[in-house]
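tool=predict chain=A
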Amino acid sequence: MPFITILFAIDLILTGIIGFQVTGGKSYTALIPAGIGLLLFIAGISAFCEKCRKHAMHGAVLVGLLGFLGTMTSFGDLCTILHGNLSTLPRPEASVSKLVTAMICGHFVLICIWSFLEIRWSRSKAPTA
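tool=predict ok
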């Protein structure tokens, strides 16, 4: 799971950097996905330590959940984006970046929840001594 966390972190960092470049380097708020990605990257690296893995992964899923909750309002613009009417949005670059961030963070949270459930199921099936 640490490797998957790092991959999602890289996706978010790239989303932030690309969003910043698309705005012409004017909007520093476009780097928010990169900040989320940096936190996930740190948690992913920390999770390689066996003692820290549980805490690091729980911290990572918390960061992912907060990232999703903070950007989920972008799903209101989804129909507009899919129909190609970006000119009707006040800040189309921000809307697209928020939507991509919400999808990446939401996907990460779902994968983490599934992983946590698999670990719990495998522990309950393990024979006790």
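The chain is about 75% helix and 0% strand. The mean pLDDT is 89.
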